[in-house]
């Protein structure tokens, strides 16, 4: 009897060993195919064109390009502003702009993701788009009124918002416009036409520069008007571009209860999950400031901001995967594989460049940043790999409407990142934050990898 049990145990171990070995072999084959396909694409103009025209890749590239262009033009904008406006005016205007952006973002309530998931299969696309735009506009108006009403409590330096009716009305109006612009972005993502949003971003970021110069005599109001007017023009352009994709579309204030009710659970669950997904970005700087001090926080901010540009790659690809999966759900698995492959194709050379020249790039901010932020930046860059795995998994689960899995994944990532960063920061300093971030994203990636690999290998 004992011999039979031993033989059975040995058989199970051998079977487990064989399964692990078999899965590893299949993963190695996928990696080998990745390099072969990459070489073929790079060395063939025809395959390069075919690659660029594939919706998954095309939209991912436009999303990446949009982030780079917005960041670059935004930097140019503030450089120009700094030369013609006083520091006090810039300080107040930047606070207004940041607050408008925050309120506009909060007002989405996840309906932006609901649009991407449900719009492709919706029969009444006009009603769905307008209902989401109207909801976000109303919520942003409500949030703006609440913010202005209690401004003496949370931001007394912006008290002039409450005292000056012109500023109050403009602040509320631009918050509404900002929320509409955010929502239009996801309309284009849902229709797999991100190139139109890319055009919007260029228009908004370019126009505010000459507008700020023309309105210089208005001081703080001039900067704020330039910013808001550029948003308004981008929204008007967006309505025109939506009509190209959806002939007959009219941007009318509408709230269809059935549309909202059908999307509410999915959208709000994604909204809550998104809060956990991004909460580390807000908490870590505060932790560094309170524990390690202002100087360390400056190094952290530069390293983290630089790494966020790299994280744009897997996040853009995952967003494109979400749109593709919503439009063509039967190709979700093959597109998930393509997404992971593309992430690695782009991240490997980009990471190598940063490892080799990152310290030189940081010299642009000063020698102290090069000496104190480079190690942290290098650790953040390594975490792009687990982030790719996490974001691909999240997009797949969003398409499959398993938002609970998305929430659990982000909660695990946020909790482990914050806890590990705190513990390591207090022991080994600033580098501990990077290691904590890497461990946190790594733990979340490990948790989802089993499901991810099983899902992909079903191909």
UniProtKB/TrEMBL annotation:
Intracellular or extracellular location(s): Cell membrane
Lineage: Archaea, Methanobacteriati, Methanobacteriota, Archaeoglobi, Archaeoglobales
Keywords for this protein: Cell membrane, Membrane, Transmembrane, Transmembrane helix
Topology term for the membrane: Multi-pass membrane protein
Name of the molecule in the record: Membrane protein involved in the export of O-antigen and teichoic acid
Pfam families, sorted: Polysacc_synt
InterPro entries (UniProt xref): Poly_Biosynth_Transport (IPR050833), Polysacc_synth (IPR002797)
Annotated Gene Ontology cellular component terms: plasma membrane
Record-annotated membrane-spanning stretches: 60-80, 92-113, 133-154, 166-189, 209-242, 263-292, 298-323, 344-365, 377-396, 403-424, 430-449
């Amino acid at each position: 009897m004992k011999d039979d049990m031993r033989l059975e145990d040995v058989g199970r171990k051998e079977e487990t060993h064989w399964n692990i070995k078999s899965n590893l072999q299949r993963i190695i084959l996928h990696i080998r195919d990745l390099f072969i396909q990459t070489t073929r694409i790079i060395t063939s103009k025809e395959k390069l064109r075919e690659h660029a025209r594939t919706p998954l890749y095309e939209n991912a590239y436009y999303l990446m390009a949009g982030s780079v262009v917005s960041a670059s033009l935004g930097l140019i904008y503030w450089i120009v502003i700094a030369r013609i406006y006083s520091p006090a005016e810039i300080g107040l205007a930047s606070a207004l702009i940041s607050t408008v952006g925050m309120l506009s973002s909060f007002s989405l309530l996840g309906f932006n993701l609901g649009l991407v998931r449900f719009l492709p299969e919706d029969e009444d696309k006009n009603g769905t788009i307008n209902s989401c735009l109207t909801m976000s506009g109303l919520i942003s108006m409500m949030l703006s009124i609440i913010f202005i009403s209690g401004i003496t409590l949370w931001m007394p330096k912006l008290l002039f918002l409450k005292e000056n009716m012109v500023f109050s009305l403009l602040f509320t109006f631009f918050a509404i416009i900002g929320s509409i612009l955010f929502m239009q972005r996801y309309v284009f993502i849902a229709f797999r036409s991100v190139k139109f949003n890319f055009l919007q971003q260029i228009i908004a970021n370019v126009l505010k520069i000459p507008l700020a110069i023309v309105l210089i005599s208005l001081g703080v109001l001039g900067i704020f008007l330039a910013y808001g007017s550029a948003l308004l023009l981008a929204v008007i352009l967006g309505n025109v571009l939506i009509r190209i994709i959806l002939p007959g579309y009219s941007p009318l204030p509408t709230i269809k209860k059935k549309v909202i009710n059908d999307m509410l659970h999915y959208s709000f669950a994604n909204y809550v999950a998104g809060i956990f997904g991004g909460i580390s970005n807000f908490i870590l700087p505060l932790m560094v400031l309170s524990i390690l001090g202002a100087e360390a926080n400056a190094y952290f901010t530069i390293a983290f901001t630089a790494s966020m540009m790299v994280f744009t790659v897997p996040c853009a690809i995952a967003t494109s995967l979400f749109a593709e999966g919503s439009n063509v759900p039967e190709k979700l698995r093959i597109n998930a594989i393509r997404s992971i492959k593309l992430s690695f194709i782009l991240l490997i050379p980009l990471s190598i460049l940063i490892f080799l020249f990152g310290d030189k790039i940081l010299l642009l901010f000063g020698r102290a940043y090069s000496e104190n932020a480079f190690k942290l930046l290098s650790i953040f860059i390594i975490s792009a790999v687990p982030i790719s795995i996490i974001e691909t998994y999240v997009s797949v689960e969003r398409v499959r409407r398993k938002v609970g899995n998305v929430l659990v994944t982000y909660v695990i990532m946020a909790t482990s990142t914050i806890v590990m960063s705190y513990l390591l920061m207090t022991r080994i300093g600033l580098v501990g934050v990077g290691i904590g971030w890497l461990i946190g994203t790594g733990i979340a990636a490990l948790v989802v990898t089993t499901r991810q690999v099983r899902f992909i290998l079903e191909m």
